[in-house]
Design brief:
Blueprint: H1 2-37, H2 42-45, H3 60-67, H4 75-106, H5 112-121, H6 127-140, H7 147-151, H8 158-168, H9 173-181, H10 186-197, H11 199-214, H12 218-223, H13 232-241, H14 247-282
Helix pairs in contact: 3-14, 4-8, 4-11, 8-11, 11-14, 13-14
């Protein structure tokens, strides 16, 4: 009987490992293809079977990716725009979400639950439903075709508030009360105690907020017309839509545009994984 159970357990574990390995393969394969294809001439990419290891490094792909099909070298400016927008939104999202989450988690005031539910209700509204009114307001106040128009509508994130509130609601009150007894004012308590001890969740929220803006295509497509103000998703769309683009250069553009996200993720991966685990354990 025991041997039968042991054999069954082994079969289950083997099946789980097989599913996980397949999942990893399907997840990693597109990334490996992007990297290897960016180093090949277009004629080698379409050959079957596909050669996963390039014979040599085809540097013209990266030159063309940076120079663009028109040779105007807009890639550096567009990726700088994305860095400015994504970084600014990430900073404001983290600060405002952390402050709001702290207030909703640790302060008792009338209507606190109602305010929290109203913030959560905004998560149920799809962006497409408010996109046109938001565009009209942005145009009316003169933020079209500017960094303000790209940043201001996304400075506050309802999910970020929810995430920080759920983390801070179980933060020990004793630390806060002890700081108040010692004479610390609320802003000092926030900056000296709450903010540093929320590092894992802040790192998780930072990665999510940065990625959301780095990949944002629809809103910049509406509010930006100048080539110098376009973000990297718009550059990629234009690059791949032009008839002279080739597959190798397309993959080079995608690889170069992915590098900041890879750097951010690996730099904060320890906090990101820890923050995800903590958030999952506390959200109930």
């Amino acid at each position: 009987m025991n041997s039968h159970i042991t054999t069954g357990d082994r079969l289950v574990k083997s099946l789980i490992y097989a599913v996980l390995i397949l999942f990893v393969i399907f997840t990693v394969a597109p990334l490996v293809f992007m990297i290897t294809a960016s180093m090949m001439p277009a004629k080698d990419i379409v050959k079957m079977p596909y050669r996963w290891i390039p014979e040599s490094f085809h540097w013209p792909n990266f030159y063309k990716a940076i120079a663009g099909n028109d040779g105007r070298f807009m890639f550096p400016r567009n990726i700088l725009n994305s860095l400015i927008v994504a970084s600014s939104v990430t900073v404001t999202t983290v600060l405002l979400a952390c402050m709001t989450g702290y207030g909703l988690a640790k302060f008792r005031f009338r209507g606190r639950t109602f305010v929290f539910m109203m913030i959560m209700a905004t998560m149920m509204i799809p962006f497409e439903a408010i996109m046109i009114p938001l565009y009209l307001v942005t145009t009316k106040i003169g933020l079209q075709n500017s960094y303000g128009g790209l940043i201001v509508p996304f400075m506050v994130n309802a999910f970020g508030v929810f995430m920080m509130r759920q983390y801070l609601v179980t933060f020990p009150d004793e630390f806060i009360e002890a700081a108040r007894i010692d004479g610390m004012h609320e802003m000092r308590i926030f900056w000296s105690i709450i903010f540093p001890n929320s590092a894992p969740t802040i790192a998780t929220l930072s990665i999510l907020a940065f990625r959301a803006q780095w990949d944002n295509l629809l809103w910049p497509l509406l509010v930006v017309q100048s080539e110098k103000m376009k973000t990297i998703p718009l550059y990629i769309v234009k690059f791949t839509a032009e008839k002279h683009s080739d597959e190798g250069a397309m993959m080079a553009v995608a690889l170069l545009a992915s590098i900041p996200m890879f750097i951010l993720f690996f730099a904060l991966s320890e906090y990101f994984i820890g923050g995800s685990a903590v958030f999952s354990s506390r959200k109930g």
